Structure formats: structure tokens, C-alpha cells
Amino acid sequence: MPNRPSQTFATHARYLPGWHFFAFPVLGINAIVALVVLVRSPTLATAWAAVVAIALALAIFFSRYMVLVVQDRVIRLEETLRLERLLPERRAEIARLSRNHLVALRFACDDEVPSLMDRILAGEMSSRKEIKRAVKTWRPDYHRA
């Protein structure tokens, strides 16, 4: 595996500059500009341009959203299998974990999983952010979309 920087809660977010800082903002701004032009000069052509601009912005947003939903489903499956392997006697409890719990638990090393799971099921933590912050030994995930 190539040398990669270690991941922590503070460094695990992944940004694709072309996506996050160019394509998405440009299409969002284009939709706003098209709406402003439509309001200032309402014609069939400006209305159609606004519809197309909004459709493009929504298409790019939903294309990212759909990828993240599929990624979360795969992570849920992977983590369920991992937890069932680590804690076979706790299958009923594993089934009570939500998708968000499982997505956050993927960063915890095997030794930390039981105590984190206990805290989640006791209601001490519920959000992805809370669970990720509680992880002491980070298990990196370099394959996120």
C-alpha cells in the first residue's frame, strides 16, 4: 500500500477539489444566476434556461447523494459482518445498531468495538460525529467515495 497519511477524526474527511470546490459550486451559482435573469427578464427562453440550470444542479447533487447512499449500504453490510465475526454472541444487539452507528463504527479498531457498542446501546452516543470522536485507535478507511 502506498504511504498515506494517518487518519483521525480531524483528518478523515475527503474532499475532491474538482467536485467540492468547482463543479458543484459552479452549477449552483449558475442556477441562481439563471433564476435572477428569469426574474429580471421573464421570457420563455429565460424560463427554460432556469429550468435547465436547476435540473443540472439537482442532477449533480443527486448523483453524489445516490453514491453516498450506496456507500452507506455497503458499509452497513461490511460492519455487520465484522461485528458478527467479532461478537457472535451479541447478534441481537448488533441488529439494533442503526446505519449511522455502523458507518461510524467502521473507524474503530476491533478492540474498541465492544465498549463503543455498549455506549451506543446505552444511549450515551447516537450521532456519527459523537461515535467517531469516541474512537481512540482509528482504523482508516481510504476507499470512501
List the helices and strands and how they pair.
Layout: H1 17-40, H2 44-86, H3 91-95, H4 99-105, H5 113-121, H6 128-134
Question: How does this structure look, described?
Answer:
The chain has 145 residues and is mainly alpha-helical. The protein folds into two domains: 16-73; 87-139, no CATH class. Helix content is 66%, strand content 0%. The chain contains six helices and no strands. The protein has helices spanning 17-40, 44-86, 91-95, 99-105, 113-121, 128-134. The longest helix has 43 residues, at 44-86.
Summarize the structure.
This protein is an all-alpha fold. It has helices at residues 17-40, 44-86, 91-95, 99-105, 113-121, 128-134.
